[in-house]
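To close the chapter, one final illustration. This time we ask the reader to focus less on the individual chains and more on the assembly as a whole: which components sit near each other, and how the overall shape emerges from the parts.
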Amino acid sequence: MTTAMPDTGFFNFPGAGPLWLSIQLAATTMVLLVVIGTPLGWWLARTTSRWKTVLQAVVALPIVLPPTVLGFYLLIVLGPNGAIGSWWVELTGEALTFSFSGLVIASCLYSLPFAVQPLQGAFEALDRRDLEAAWTLGASRVDAFFTIAVPQSARGYLSAVVLSFAHTLGEFGVVLMVGGNIPGETRVISIAIYDQVESLNYASAHQLSAILLAFAFLVLFTMFVVNRRWERT
Amino acid sequence: MSITLRYALQRDDFGLDVDLKIPMRGITGVFGESGSGKTTLLRCIAGLERPATGRLVVGSDVWQDQSKKVSRAVHEREIGYVFQEPRLFRHLNVLRNLDYGRHRGKMSRDEIAFDHIIALLGLEQLLHRMPGALSGGEAQRVAIARALLRAPRVVLMDEPLAALDRARKDEILPFLDRLHAELSLPIIYVSHNIEEICRLCDHLIVIENGLVLANETLQSALVRMDLPILSGDEAGSVICGTVKGYDADYELTHFEFSGGELLVPGRFGEAAADARLRIRASDISLCRDRPPQSSILNILPAIVEELQVGRGPSILLRLRIGTDQLIARITRRSCDELNLQAGDAVLAQIKAVAVRNTMTE
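The assembled structure is written out below.
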């Protein structure tokens, strides 16, 4: 599931492998979360069902729970004897725990609120009257959703994309519980940093930490710049 | 060809129960107080409201029939809906707003129709603006064009002028006159403003508390005296005729109709143009004999057709002048002093106010 790291000079530094793995994990998670978060956020924004509050609380859980708690339950559910894990073994012949696929599932749950909440907020701010106008102009519900609701929720999508990507990049506890520390499979950058510190290799830890810090700042800074530009138009 | 519909629905605070036949041409006004069910009726036709029982046939196509389990979705009904507020898509410029319905309808490649509608609504200069940079009147004109470019079979207008101030209304009304004169599309026009109705509509439906009180030509509905909503302070009638000429010296337009000639202040329309006049009931007074001198310019012979019975300081009468009918309001005391009876010949003194000329300027 993972792709080999591009073999160029730029990536030839210690820790480049974990960084590349982290980026792949974050990107996969981000894409999946936009796909999952769109219908979920839409439903939460529109429904009057009494299940809304329940689901909202469940979605928000990862914000409050220690990652180790989430990771512990995932370890059980995704394990070869767990409900999902055993089904996965039957399907693919491989275990979900201590694999990249398992990490993707865990990350999706872990970063879920960071995608769903901005999308839900954006959908709630939509003017239903615009959708009605689109229908009367010949757009089906799906058509109107993609041509009116999505573009008018662009800022919500930007937040969802950036936050779910960045949040996954910084994930540590859940990965440690579910993924362990397998090079090229589950050793993401935060684990690699922990590893270096454990073996008192501070220079390398510094380097990786600085990369992550700079990257996180850059991503958030870009998001706020774009957001501000959209605000003006 | 007509639109026939039957709807019955019950909401918490309000119900609608209508059975209507609406002509497939001209502008049909739907008139009533706020909360009478006018907007709900339009929303039912558009499919935005799903009543328990309903049937809607447009021309020969059944759009909705509960008993046959037919109900077209909103986007499958060929309607152009103009809402009270423009509802332009704020992330698209004017041109792309116009294209939204056009590319989903049958007019996608009809450049002639496109240019015609753009010119009709005077949008040439606005095409590349964003909705946020338009005035209220401009935005509503774009919304009207957008609805027309969807190639609808019926246009629904829900008080399109109500949110605009007097000046913006006067800016849009001439465009609506032109639509009326140049397009054969049926328009259902909801309003609680009798002036707009008298200016634009050919046919009138009166709704009160979700029930239909009248569904007939504008002129015949206006001279009914049994509809409280039409016989209050705003009571009046509409007559159609032609412009004979303009007296530049006194600044009066000569207007001719079946009952003779009327002089109307101001200039409206070219000679020979079709025009309609609205005459308020309170702008007509009656006398038995021609007064030797009067400040009223228009004095025409009339027959009293019907008198309203009842108490109160004033009463309404329906007059026939030529082949047209008008209603007049006089005090009950004057009526008794003149001893007016149905069938009497009288003289009507009329102050007329021009409503519009139906031809474009």
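The interface with chain A takes residues 46-48, 73-75, 77, 79-81, 83, 85, 87, 89-91, 100-101, 104-105, 146-147, 150 of chain B (CB under 8 Å). Chain B has a mean pLDDT of 89. With these observations in hand, you are ready for the problems at the end of the chapter.
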